[in-house]
Every structure is written in structure tokens, then in C-alpha cells.
Design a protein that fits this description.
Elements lengths: L1 E2 L10 H8 L12 H14 L3 E5 L2 H12 L5 E5 L3 H5 L3 H4 L4 E5 L1 E2 L2 E2 L1 H7 L10 E7 L12 H13 L4 E4 L3 H8 L3 H5 L4 E5 L10 E5 L1 H13 L8 H13 L4 H18 L13 E5 L7 H10 L2 E2 L1 E4 L2 E5 L6 H16 L2
Parallel strand pairs: 1-12, 3-4, 3-7, 7-8, 8-9
Antiparallel strand pairs: 2-10, 5-6, 9-10, 11-14, 13-14
Helix pairs in contact: 1-11, 2-11, 3-10, 12-14
The structure holds pyridoxal-5'-phosphate.
Pyridoxal-5'-phosphate binds next to α3.
């Protein structure tokens, strides 16, 4: 099987497995663990924040960020296609007691004027803006990278209104590589940021939420509340450290295979994907003109040994990663071409 469903399918490297065997086994929920602390410090340095807290997942890091930033009853302004609004099962409302307002956007970037208009204070009869949210890279928009100018503008609008900003940077290193910047140059436009070591960076588990020292101290209490204290998590953190030390630079290869895939699919039918839209390791493919739904395409591709997930009724998502070679991409394009001909 050629598995293009997600970069979370990447297996730990040999160096990660070795580091896991040698890791410390302190209790992160009691006295702390040296390996976890090292990963948290590295994450804070990479993102230009004071402190970090290791979490089991990106979803939990986002949830804990909401709980820590905002009091119940506030409104979170977020681009309408964002992962947190579409794929985190409403934790924001169900657990954090907050409300989403989706702001229309293009390629993951909220319309700045629409955002400005949506900002509002808390009044006796009005729910006020509690938090502004960005996602970079943007999952549903095919791994689109938010332009730095856009992030600067969004951050300024929020801060002018006294509202904090969170960045869901699950794939911030892909964004950084694509922009040729350090991740901290991206996260400077947010008060807090989280990223995953469990995706293209190949660690088995984990995300780190970063922010000011005081914020992270409070976040640790909310992490405990939602059951995210992992006790002897040194081995997981050890793999995360190797991920940050050795796996960031190679993400460029995933961007190249994604581009190769987009080029191949574009040659089959230009309406499937515009390769110019492919900036990182995600390729969003529009199959509407085939008249068949994405779920059907996904099932047909599986029959040919290729795994890709629907990300909308008529759109598929292909994700390249460390285990996908240029030959795998060529095989995928050829299988897709066969199916396209017989559609
Ligand atoms: C943008 C974004 N945020 C958050 C998450 C959630 O991460 P996790 O699967 O570790 O909960 C994902 C997962 O794909 C994502 O793409």
C-alpha cells in the first residue's frame, strides 16, 4: 500500500528508537522529567517563546490553549475551514465553553476586513471576542502557507482590541521551510503556538504548546484537567528531541514529492489541482468534474493499493512524507490516470 492519508503514519527512525531506550523515566506529573523538560525547552526556543508544555496530541494542545486563554462564554474568531472548527469535534464548546465564529477566508487566510468587523467587546447583551486563531500550514487548504504580512495584520487587529492570538502550527516547520524562515519568525505573530512532532517529523506521539512562562504554568493545570499528564513520558519526548534535531531539514523532500504528485495529476486534467497551489506536503485534489464523490475515489484508489482520504465531499487529500518516494508518486499518478480514463 502507498499510504498518502497523512504524515502521521511515519514510523520513528532508528535514532529515535535508540534515544527512547536511553531516555529518563521521571514522573512528568510529579517532579518532572529531564527529557521532557529538554524537549519543552527546545520547542520554546524554536518558536521564540519562554516555555513549552508537552502534550499527547495537537488536538489537546489546541484545547488546552483555548482553556488557558479564554473564560467560558467568549467567542473565538477562526478561519471557517480551520482544523479546530472542522475536525476537533467541537471541544471548544463542549469542553472549553467557548463559541466559534468562522471567518471566510482564502487559502486558510481570513479576510482581514471580515475579521476586523467581527471583533467586538463583551457587553451586557453581547458575547465578546475572546481569542483570534490562525492555522499555518492550513490543512484543508492543501497545506497552504499563511503569508507573513497576513499574520502580522491579523495579530495587530487582535492586539489593538486587547485580544490574544493562538497559532495552530501543527506543521509550522513545513511553513518555515516553505518560507525560508525560522519558525519563530512565524510564531512572533501569535501569543501562543503549538506544533506536532508526530507528523512529518516522524516521532510516534506528541505536540508542544508554547507561550509565556506564566501562560504555560496555567496551561499545565488545564492539561492535568483534561487528562493529558502522561507520567513517564521521557521516551516519547526523547523521540521528539531527535525529531527536532534531525528531521526538520528533510521536509523539503516531502514538498518536492508533493509537487511531483500535483504536476502529474495536473497533466491528467488541469482541473484536478493547480501545482502552483502546492506549497508544502499536502495536495488537495478536486474530483467534482468526475461526477463521483471523494469517498468513491478513495475506495477505488484503495483497490489499486493507494490510500488517500476525502477532505470534502468532492476533494481528496494526499499527504507526502518520509516513506513516500518519487516512484510511489509516479505509481499513484499512473493509477489515478487509469481511474480517470474509466470514470
Ligand atoms: C492543523 C492541525 N491542527 C491540529 C491537528 C491535530 O493533531 P492531532 O492529530 O495530534 O490531535 C491536526 C492533525 O492533523 C492538524 O492538521
Amino acid at each position: 500500500m502507498i499510504d498518502l492519508r497523512s504524515d502521521t503514519v511515519t514510523k520513528p527512525t532508528e535514532a529515535m528508537l535508540e534515544s527512547m531506550r536511553e531516555a529518563t523515566f521521571g514522573d512528568d506529573s510529579r517532579d518532572g522529567d529531564a527529557t521532557v523538560m529538554k524537549l519543552e525547552q527546545m520547542a520554546a526556543e524554536r518558536t521564540g517563546k519562554e516555555a513549552g508544555a508537552f502534550m499527547p496530541s495537537g488536538t489537546m494542545a489546541n484545547l488546552v490553549a483555548m482553556l488557558t486563554h479564554a473564560r467560558r462564554g467568549g467567542e473565538v474568531l477562526v478561519e471557517e475551514g480551520s482544523h479546530t472548527l472542522n475536525a476537533e469535534l467541537g471541544g471548544i464548546a463542549a469542553v472549553a465553553g467557548l463559541f466559534y465564529r468562522g471567518i471566510r477566508g482564502r487559502r486558510g487566510a481570513m479576510e482581514v476586513e471580515a475579521l476586523r468587523e467581527a471583533m467586538r467587546p463583551t457587553l451586557r447583551n453581547q458575547m465578546g471576542t475572546a481569542l483570534v486563531w490562525m492555522e499555518n500550514t492550513h490543512n484543508r487548504s492543501g497545506g497552504a502557507v499563511l503569508p507573513l504580512d497576513h499574520m502580522r495584520a491579523v495579530c495587530a487587529i487582535a492586539h489593538d482590541n486587547g485580544v490574544p492570538v493562538h497559532l495552530d502550527g501543527a506543521r509550522i516547520f513545513n511553513a518555515a521551510i516553505s518560507l525560508g524562515l525560522q519558525p519563530s519568525e512565524i510564531s512572533q505573530y501569535s501569543d501562543t503556538v503549538c506544533f506536532c512532532v508526530s507528523k512529518g517529523l516522524s516521532a510516534p506521539v506528541g505536540s508542544i504548546l508554547c507561550g509565556s512562562g506564566a501562560f504555560i504554568e496555567r496551561a499545565r493545570a488545564f492539561r492535568r484537567m483534561v487528562g493529558g499528564n502522561m507520567r513517564q513520558s521521557g521516551p516519547l519526548a526523547a523521540a521528539g528531541i531527535v525529531a527536532l534535531e534531525t528531521m526538520v531539514g528533510r521536509l523539503v523532500e516531502d514538498h518536492q514529492t508533493a509537487k511531483r504528485l500535483a504536476d502529474g495529476l495536473h497533466r491528467i486534467d488541469p482541473r484536478l489541482v493547480d501545482p502552483r497551489d502546492v506549497e508544502t506536503n499536502l495536495v488537495r485534489v478536486e474530483v467534482k468534474t468526475s461526477g463521483r464523490r471523494a469517498a468513491q475515489w478513495s475506495a477505488d484508489l484503495r483497490q489499486k493499493g493507494i490510500l488517500a482520504s476525502p477532505c470534502d465531499a468532492y476533494a481528496l487529500r494526499f499527504v507526502t512524507h518520509r516513506h513516500i518516494t518519487p516512484a510511489d508518486v509516479d505509481a499513484t499518478v499512473s493509477a489515478f490516470a487509469d481511474l480517470w480514463k474509466s470514470k
